[in-house]
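Q: I'm writing a short explainer about Phospho-sugar mutase for a general audience and would like to include a description of its predicted shape. Could you first generate the structure from this sequence?
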Amino acid sequence: MTSSDDAADATDTADTPNDVEVLTEAALSWLDQDPDPETRDELGALLRRVGANLPGAADELRSRFGSRLEFGTAGLRGELAAGPNRMNRVLVGQAAAGLAAYLLEHAHPDAPPSVVIGYDGRKNSRVFAVDTAELMAGAGVRAVLLPRLLPTPLVAFAVRDLGVSAGVMVTASHNPPRDNGYKVYLGGADDGSQIVPPADGEIAAHILRVAAERDLRELPRSEAYEVAGDDVVERYVAATAAVAAVRAHPEPLVAETGLSVVYTAMHGVGWETFARVLDRAGFERPVLVTEQIEPDPDFPTVAFPNPEEPGALDLALAAARAAGADLVVANDPDADRLAIAIPDPSRDEGYRALTGNEVGQLLGWRAAEAAVAAEAAASSTLACSIVSSPGLGAVAEAYGLGFTETLTGFKWVSRASGLVFGYEEALGYLVNPATVRDKDGISAAVAFLDLARSLAAEGRTIADRLHEFAERFGHYGSAQISLRVTDLSQIGRVMQRLRSDPPAEVAGLRVLGIDDLSRGDGGVPASDVLRLRFDGARVMVRPSGTEPKLKIYLDAWSREGSVAERRDAVVEALARLEGGMRDRIA
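A: Of course. Here's the predicted structure. Afterward I'll give you a sentence or two in plain language.
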């Protein structure tokens, strides 16, 4: 996937003197086939500005028409506007027709291809979903549209539940309000996981062929698509509520323990489905952040609708202080991610948000206990991405489970053999692989609430559980450095410098070894990632796959001394690594 920022950076300058004329012709052709009055109007206005030679108009034209959003393993994602380097009905129509061609090409002669299509509450999500359904049906693919705006995990679930060939989810997850996206899953042997190579390249080739050879108006459409009934949602609700039954509570414990929870949907689509799951699992309804509970494509109360971003949880924390809550639960707008905050008297806010690694380690510990209880440890695997904390591996080793590290993305995590739990540090958790082979913020929330209420029944808290984790497995800490660039070549230069002149030490900490994953080191497919190994620490360096950033992940751990001493040692190591790595990439 290439973001609009990436593509814009790559097309700021022109190589030929007549590029504006060529791009203007391309824009006029695009305008002719665009069925959306809004994007037609704004593209027409841009062309008038180009014709009048107004400042910035030619650069804007190059940004939109000098390249196109690339279809990759993460599908498509970009800003809503006209042009092949933006998200719009023409681009989505080409993507739908290309995916339909791929499905028809790979279909079994006796089994016509099929697709389930979902959408969230972002601007144009339903429009893009209906366009996809009509174009799929027109191409001869059985198309099933989900009944209303729903969380992303419902599509991953429905691919397997309905036994279809593929799934499409129209969402930009936690991106800015002006973005939208197109995410693809495959059925059959892929079990409803996101696409991986070579499928992504094959689909992309079909999309490019459609874009080059067909006018959108020529593509056959049909309204003979199906609309799924609510029974699909109900089956997801039942399967997700069953996540809480792992510990076999005879009765709901929330009322008995007085556990108080605050929930925010971050202006997304999570609450309606989550509420049904809570009722089915026997949880009391949480205190709601009412300002953020209904879907709103403008995301008016947050600067950036991502629970990881500073300030995104402010309203939820305020509600928690008012309620004296024991737990804050937050989903991102399409509810595939989960954020948790717990009371912390040392903070001015009175609460602190747990890191994705902390939540992942606790949920992994819970999954390991369940596997042992089911006498299935030997056939069970915990998995996480290579940039997530090694703490999950310590849990797997202690309980006799397998442990797998994968490339970043749930398209890889979900494919771990024998998977019972997987996570990524960016607030993504896969707790129910029997039904959803993707990150799922709703089932993860159920699992975490189940853990919290079990602890509360014993007079303990999540903070106590984190302390116990550090006692048993060691204290693990993590930090990140993100270097945003305007010149993408800067990232390549930093990676090349680290490869050609690898450091022997960082801030006085000796480098024990360096793994270059571009050569296939580390047991994962080749990827542009470097791993620096230290005694009790690790640094991962990789270019972002979605933004013009170099990302550095710092991990440190300690198993020596008291929990407080372990924590202090980790904090010191992370501080030294952060300062040293910032110097290295300057």
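A: For your explainer, you could say: The chain is about 40% helix and 20% strand.
Q: Perfect, that's easy to follow.
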